[in-house]
Design a protein that fits this description.
It is a single chain. By secondary structure, the chain is an alpha/beta fold. The chain folds into 4 domains: 1-48; 49-186, Alpha Horseshoe (Serine Threonine Protein Phosphatase 5, Tetratricopeptide repeat); 205-343, Rossmann fold; 364-539, Glycogen Phosphorylase B (Rossmann fold). 49% of the residues lie in helices and 9% in strands. The strands form 2 sheets. A 7-stranded parallel sheet has the order 3-2-1-4-5-6-7, covered by helices on one side. The chain has a 6-stranded parallel sheet with strand order 10-9-8-11-12-13, sandwiched between helices. α4 runs antiparallel to α17 (412-423). The longest helix is centred in the last third of the chain and has 29 residues, at 541-569.
Length: 570
């Protein structure tokens, strides 16, 4: 599209905003938009100026820019926009097609048209909510998901509402409230029967793990260290996936009993018939979860582990596994958990580095390259408080750039909205670069482009952080007293990288700028990063497995003692 806006208006507005004069910028950019309402750049810059000044019109301005941009892209792809306004099914269908291409912002705009056209389909509302969530708009996502629950109440639909809470400020408390509501609605009062599991002496402890899929899922790098190192002389392991065909890569002595096609009560009976002593959920409140099975208490000891480090909200869940507390910290409030927290050792889990890793490389800035900060985290985690800190870092290191890599950054609208959010923080759009999904060597080489990885909060990285460290890329994290903050702290401490743990946002900014200003010091940290991962607790697969086996044995022995006492004293 050829702009007819006088260059002086748009260019001067941009200069004024980046020169920290948002009021002048607003005046210039309002004039630019009035001269050509369809000019996307003018609208994005006006939104940035209003965001900077805290204008009550800021949110509406950004939404107008995003909507116009998305509609132009949709029309160029052959979408009949007029039909979208009257045919809800058509609008939902094209929204789904864009979602499949990872164009989540475009998909969200088209889903909004479907709703305006009258759709009340709960699946469409959930898809709209997911499109909003993936853009980093958790409150709006929650509203859509709550609307879906009102139309079609049920555990699977309601479960979508839980994760967005963790992306918000005060997320741990909000998540606790929502998980308790979920458990009260769908798990409370499910029937259970006493257990008669015999003592451990003279037999193997029977452990069960529940997830829709283990191999080929986000769990694989976490569960492979455990399943490959379990001691078959001490434990008997049964996996409970949806389909046994997905789980052929594990040691032959591990049993696989699929639960696909079984209702929750039937699945619980299947597990109970196997005589499982300790049953661990590995999926949390994620699509495909079988947490209602735990409501029937098919095993005497039930443990939450993996995918989430927060509570499940189930009173029937006995324990949740966490890493040891750092010295001098009290940890999250036990009131935020229905489970008892069981400290498993220095890390929450071992993590298997990707096969075929490339050899570590020196800090790229030492080669004369432009200093590159990076984040490969999900866009949903790019909260306002995170961007505030990142904006301060980029302003303090004016020759640097930020590389954001994730599959959803294939969406040009999400890219431009993200740049607009940074422009509101004084960072020019061209300093924010994007990369989409990649696999194998291309993915491994992406870590070699980044001098320092920046983590997010209140929802930090997990797999992305561990991936970066295992490839030798240092990651700066912000710790805190909440569960997520302590989780990322445990990872960095386990790798011997305490200097990359910030206590608060200001400390985070200072540490990032200090490292950006001293590439030699950063390179010395980089040289320790991969060896620290490989030689520390994150890479100690056998050691972690022994600790988790000992924990499960102690949990079961405690249950047996209570069980014997109850029988003895009535």
């Amino acid at each position: 599209m050829t702009s007819v806006v006088p260059d002086s208006d748009l260019a001067a507005g941009r200069r004024a905003l980046l020169g920290e004069d948002p009021l002048t910028a607003q005046s210039l950019l309002q004039r630019a938009v009035a001269a050509e309402p369809a000019n996307i750049e003018a609208r994005y810059w006006l939104a940035s100026a209003r965001l900077t000044s805290g204008s009550p019109q800021a949110g509406a301005s950004l939404d107008e820019a995003r909507t116009l941009h998305a509609l132009i892209l949709a029309r160029s792809a052959g979408v009949d926009l007029a039909r979208c306004q009257s045919d809800a099914a058509y609008a939902s269908d094209v929204a789904t097609q864009f979602y499949a291409r990872k164009f989540v912002a475009v998909s969200g705009v088209l889903h909004n048209l479907a709703i305006s056209a009258g759709t009340q389909d709960p699946a469409a509302l959930l898809n709209y909510g997911l499109a909003l969530q993936h853009q980093g708009r958790p409150d709006e996502a929650g509203e859509m998901m709550r609307a879906a629950v009102r139309i079609a109440p049920g555990p699977a639909v309601h479960q979508f509402l839980l994760y967005p809470q963790l992306l918000c400020e005060d997320g741990e408390r909000r998540h606790f409230v929502e998980t308790r509501a979920w458990a009260d609605a769908y798990v409370s009062g499910l029937p259970s029967a006493p257990h008669a599991n015999p003592e451990r002496r003279g037999r193997r402890l029977r452990i069960g793990y529940v997830a829709p899929r283990f191999a080929g899922s986000q769990l694989a790098q976490f569960v492979a260290p455990l399943l490959d190192h379990h001691d078959p002389r001490a434990v008997a392991v049964t996996l409970y996936p949806a389909d046994a065909a997905t789980e052929t890569a594990w040691p032959s002595w591990i049993d696989v009993h699929p639960l696909g096609g079984l209702g929750d009560a039937q699945a619980a009976e299947r597990i109970r018939a196997d005589g499982i002593d300790v049953l661990s959920d590995c999926w949390g409140h994620t699509a495909g979860a079988r947490l209602r099975v735990f409501g029937y208490r098919p095993a005497p000891v039930q443990v939450a582990w993996m995918n989430f480090v927060q509570t499940t909200g189930l009173s029937q869940m006995d324990y949740v596994l966490h890493a040891d507390l750092p010295a001098g910290t009290s940890g999250p409030s036990p009131e935020m958990f229905t489970e008892t927290i069981w400290r498993i050792g220095p890390v929450f889990s071992a993590f298997r580095a990707a096969a075929g890793r490339l050899a570590p490389t020196p800090t790229p800035a030492l080669r004369g390259a432009r200093f590159t900060f990076g984040s490969f985290n999900h866009p949903a985690k790019l909260s306002g408080v995170t961007l505030d800190a990142w904006g301060a870092i980029l302003r303090g290191a004016p020759q640097s750039r930020l590389l954001l890599k994730y599959s959803y950054f294939a969406d040009p609208v999400l890219q431009r909205v993200t740049q607009a959010r940074f422009a509101a923080r004084g960072v020019a759009p061209e300093r924010i670069t994007f990369a989409g999904h990649s696999l194998g060597e291309a993915y491994f080489r992406a870590f070699q482009e980044v001098d320092l990885m920046l983590d997010t909060w209140p929802a930090p990285g997990s797999t992305t952080t561990l991936d970066a460290l295992s490839h030798g890329a240092p990651v700066l994290v912000k710790s805190g007293a909440d569960t997520a903050g302590l989780y990322v702290r445990s990872i960095l401490e386990a790798c011997g990288l305490a200097e990359l743990i910030a206590d608060d946002a200001q400390d985070y900014i200072v540490r990032a700028l200090d490292l950006a200003g001293d590439p030699q010091r950063l390179d010395a940290i980089r040289a320790r990063t991969r060896p620290g991962f490989d030689g520390g607790a994150c890479g100690d697969e056998a050691g972690f497995t022994r600790r988790i086996e000992a924990a499960f044995e102690a949990m079961f022995d405690a249950w047996r003692m209570r069980s014997v006492d109850r029988r003895a004293y009535g």
